[in-house]
Design goal:
Blueprint (H helix, E strand, L loop, with lengths): L3 E4 L9 E5 L4 H10 L4 E4 L3 H10 L4 E4 L9 E2 L2 H4 L8 E5 L3 H7 L5 E5 L4 H11 L5 E4 L7 H13 L8 H8 L2 H7 L10 H5 L7 E8 L2 E8 L8
Parallel strand pairs: 1-8, 2-7, 2-8, 3-6, 4-5, 4-6
Antiparallel strand pairs: 3-10, 7-9, 9-10
Helix pairs in contact: 5-6, 6-7
Length: 231
């Protein structure tokens, strides 16, 4: 199956099926947020929009890349997020690459957001849907991020069958520039466990689907039949 792998700048037209990949760290964080009780994630185009959405909806929370900032309740780090209790809350998320990529394809008929922690369920969801070629949006480094490309290729291979070794793909991610930057403390809002948490394959049993809900682009977890949590 000839899938397409593109960076955000290379997107033209509206794909039929889009899978937006951000391993380090937006869609690893999103999966962790759902595991900590978040009901839905609203994707914001700017930090000011994220704060405005939070301020206009009682009980909503906001999350951003980088260091903690006034008005934001969390940062884009799975290690810092995993101890939070977000039961029943709506989280507004704005990141440098992942949310940008998802918003760029928000009008596609089917949009999934993914990372290694939901890679298998994402592939099985697409296979159950009978999806044809997928447009994988590699969000990092203008489409050149090896951790995102590796995850995209892994999901693409898994769509053809379950017996795919993850190790070669996670190795590429672990040796990527993004992983080195995180491990070296070059990105703010960082926990020492972030790289390892981003490379936990199939940590969660759901896929994540983005849909238009009124004027908002909303990400929600989607159960995948036959998939049980390894947690």
């Amino acid at each position: 199956m000839d899938h397409h792998f593109v960076g955000i700048p290379e997107l033209t037209g509206v794909p039929r099926v889009a899978v937006v990949i951000d391993v380090m760290r937006a869609f690893t964080v999103a999966a962790w947020a759902f595991s900590r009780g978040v009901e839905r994630i609203v994707l914001a185009s700017t930090e000011s929009e994220a704060l405005a959405l939070k301020e206009s909806h009682s009980g909503w929370l906001a999350l951003k890349d980088g260091a903690p900032a006034a008005g934001f309740d969390a940062v884009n780090s799975p290690g810092l997020l995993r101890s939070c209790d977000f039961t029943g809350r709506t989280l507004v998320q704005k990141t440098t690459a992942g949310t940008v990529g998802a918003l760029a394809v928000a009008n596609a008929p089917l949009v999934l957001c993914a990372s290694f922690v939901v890679a298998g369920p994402t592939a099985r969801f697409l296979r159950a849907k009978g999806s044809g070629p997928v447009t994988f949006v590699v969000t990092g480094e203008g489409g050149q991020a090896d951790e995102d490309r590796a995850c995209a290729e892994y999901i693409g291979r898994c769509m053809a069958g379950d017996d795919v070794a993850a190790a070669p793909y996670t190795h590429r991610a672990r040796t990527s520039r993004a992983a080195a930057d995180l491990a070296g403390g070059l990105r703010s809002g960082y926990h020492p466990d972030d790289v390892d948490l981003c490379l936990e394959v199939d940590r969660f049993p759901f896929a994540m689907m983005a849909r238009q809900e009124g004027s908002l682009t909303v990400l929600r977890p989607v159960a995948v039949p036959g998939v049980r949590s390894p947690c």
